[in-house]
Structure formats: structure tokens, C-alpha cells
Specification:
Blueprint: E1 7-8, E2 18-22, E3 31-36, E4 39-45, E5 59-61, E6 67-68, E7 71-76, H1 95-106, H2 111-126, E8 130-138, H3 145-156, E9 162-168, H4 179-189, E10 193-194, H5 204-221, E11 224-229, H6 239-250, E12 256-260, H7 269-282, E13 285-288, H8 290-296, H9 312-317, E14 321-324, H10 341-351, H11 357-361, H12 369-374, E15 391-394, H13 399-404, E16 409-414, E17 417-421
Parallel strand pairs: 2-5, 7-8, 8-9, 9-10, 10-11, 11-12, 12-13, 13-14
Antiparallel strand pairs: 1-5, 2-3, 3-4, 6-15, 15-16, 16-17
Helix pairs in contact: 2-3, 4-5, 5-6, 6-7
The structure holds fe (ii) ion.
Length: 441
Amino acid sequence: MNAIAPNVLAPNPLAPNHIINARLRGRSGLFSLHWNDGVIRAIAPQDGPIAVTAQHTDGLDAEGKLVIPPLVEPHIHLDATLTAGEPNWNLSGTLFEGIERWAERKARVTRDDTKSRAHRTIRMLAANGIQHVRTHVDVTEPGLGTLQAMLEVRDEARELVDLQIVAFPQEGIESFANGRALMREAVEMGADVVGGIPHFENTRDQGVSSLHFLMELAERHDRLVDVHCDETDDPHSRFLEVLAELTRVKDMGARVTASHTTAMGSYDNAYCFKLFRLLKQAGLSFVSCPTESIHLQGRFDSYPKRRGLTRVPELDRAGLNVCFAQDSIVDPWYPLGNGNILRILDAGLHICHMLGHEDLQRALDFVTDHGARAMALGEGYGIEVGRPANLVLLSAASDYELLRTQGHALASIRHGRLIMRRSLSEVSWAETSTQPSQACS
Ligand code: FE2
């Protein structure tokens, strides 16, 4: 084969060393990207489209479509995925029944079960162009067998993803027996990130003290922080202000993430006005899981029903870092999901009233750069010379077109190696009086 057929084709398709005719976000024109030894060596602007010739047989032809750094999944629970309905379904659809159903399934969890489901889910994520994943792992379990299993998965899955593991106290730190000791042990075993769930602790005082404890634990062991914070419609759930103040005082903004913060969707504007001043001083990141939150929240409302999301556009407009995530795939909290974070982006932009022209032009920020910043990936992420050759080819030439066409990741390159290719189905037409070219795709 002497030419690059659509997207990718080379004598050794697993080891391409360049892409031609790539469109890059935020830059005009077409580019050729070259790499070797897993590192980007050159990003060259093209005068125009390059015709494929024999000299390109070790490359990919992007055909004018977007090439981006990998998609990012900054919040998922890989230890719980693919368990919905085992043994019982969450009939009320509430977060709290999800925790009850998970407690039943947890009794049947084994090391092999956890690892098998996590690996299957990681493959689903990688099939959709994701290469960076932060997973929360339940550490309210004597012996911490699930955490040990996930630490093994972190190593075994390196060919597909970089995995950050959060020590997540699903049933509390202060209100769960030996909660503090389990968190300390999880960090010593190798968890990358310290988690928390202050709104689930039995009392407000316990919630506050859990935040002091986990921030000090992270500081002492030089870990990142990602707290399930105020994941409720209760407007009186105000642990975010405590987390933000601790973050400000410790100057840890680049290392702290507040996940969910759905109560912010129920705070009144006067309180939010004051809160945002603190959030900007703290500089922490935010993760919103729009499909999961609109499913779980608002369950105690009649009508009008709240959407149950944090204030995504307002956080973004305030200059704070906010990104989207999946949270669950087929587990007691959310029965759907397929690993495609572009589906979450689509839903999130709808739910958050973010289909304005300017938001559509930069929509991918919320599942790429912003997620990478929340995960503190630093110079390990991005299309720049000297950075890892981790690249994803998309099926459209712009953020807007990708969303409009519900596009996909077509190819994923990791450390210079092609790890995933996707073929899209084509529409065939019968003879009609209207020519296909006149129809809108
Ligand atoms: Fe979560």
C-alpha cells in the first residue's frame, strides 16, 4: 500500500510517525505533526492540503479534521461500573438508594470481579479517545482489597490510560468506623488523590472536621485532593466554602478539585455572590457530571423541578476551571453510559444553557484542557513540541461541527503508538428526486 487511505493507513499501522492535514484547535490552517520515541518533535504549518504520496506511508492523513490531545475523564467510579441491577435495581433513582444498592453489591465484590469490570470499562473509555482517567475508589472497606485491585489495574492499564486513584470514603470519614485510619492506609498504599464526602457525614461538624483531616492528609503526603462536595439539592449544604477556605489558606488551588457541588444550583444568588469571591481567591477546580446529576438530583421536588447541577457557566465566566465528567457507567447510581464523554459534553451544554455561539466554538475545552488542569497533568498534556505524542483524531473540523454531527474519536495515538481506530458507518441512498448533496448531513 503506497498511500494513506482515509484517516490512517501505513505498512505498520501501529507505529505511525506523523500526521498530515491536521487542524489544531485555536490555530488557523493545516498542520503536519511529527514524532519519534513517543515525543512530539515538530508541528509544521502547511501552505495548503498535502496530497498523500509514497513518502507518507508511515503516517496518518487527518483530511482537515481536528487533532487534539486526548480526551480526559476526570471523575468516574471504575470499581462500581457494570453492576447496575446486581442484585437489585435502584428504583427510586436517588443517590441515597444508590448507596444502599451498592452496599448490597459490595458484599459480592472480589478482586477478580473488580479488576475485570475496571479493565472492560477502561477499554470503553479508550475506545472513545480518553487517555487520562481519575477514578474514585471506595476505601470504606476493611482490608482495602478493592483499592489494592485498582492499584494493580493502574499499572496493568498503562498502555491505554494514565489512571489517578482517589481514596474515596463512600460511607464517610468521621461517621464510619475507622474512617480516618482507612484513609491514612489508602494513601500509604499509593492512592494519588485524597477524597471526601462531607455532606454524607452524620453531622455538619463531622463534615467540617473531615475536610480539615483530608486536607492535612493530602498536604502531609503531597497528594492531590478531589472531594465529593455538596452532592445534594439541599441549599444548606455549604461544605464548599470550608473546602475553598482551606484551599486558600494552604495555597493549594492548583491541586484541589470540588466534584459535583450540585447544592450550588440551589443556593440563592446573594450567598453565591459572596461564595464566588472566595472561590476565585482559592482557585480550585470544579467537576460537573451533568447526566448523573440531572438523573439523581431533583428527586424530592414536584414541580418546578430543579436541574440539580452546579453553576457551570457562572464558574466558567468567573475564570474558574470547570470540566465535565461521566461519574458512572451502568452502576447503582446511573443505569446508562458507554464511555463516550462527548455524549456527556452534549448533554452538559444543553442542561447548562451553554449552546450559545461562543460556547460551541470552544466546547471541547470542557472535556480536554479543563479536565487536564483539574487532574494537574501539567506539561504531560497538550500538543506542543517536547510533550508526549498523545493525540486523538476526531471526525469533524471544529468543536461546533463535532457536536452538531455527534462526532467521534477516529484514532488515538499514545506515546506515538496507534492504540485505537474507529470506522464510521456510511449512509447509502436509493435514487430519489432530491440529490444527496442537497440534503443536510
Ligand atoms: Fe462520584
